[in-house]
Design a protein that fits this description.
The chain is mainly alpha-helical. The protein has one domain. Helix content is 84%, strand content 0%. It is elongated.
Length: 62
């Protein structure tokens, strides 16, 4: 998967959620969407942790 920005990943997650809420997907499509969403959540958490660490470091250095 191409590395997305945090904003792009969140937008994709919102789109996936909308698709899941429609309830018109096959089991295979649902499985693929859930797997994609899990990867996006993992990526977002990683970006948030990295940002948190950078902020903490910035305050340590000041």
């Amino acid at each position: 998967m191409t590395e997305l920005t945090y904003t792009d990943a969140m937008n994709r997650l919102e789109l996936i959620l909308s698709e899941l809420e429609e309830g018109k997907k096959s089991v295979d499509e649902l499985s693929a969407l859930v797997k994609e969403a899990a990867e996006l959540v993992k990526s977002c958490r990683k970006k948030l942790k990295s940002t948190e660490d950078e902020i903490a470091k910035a305050f340590e250095d000041s």
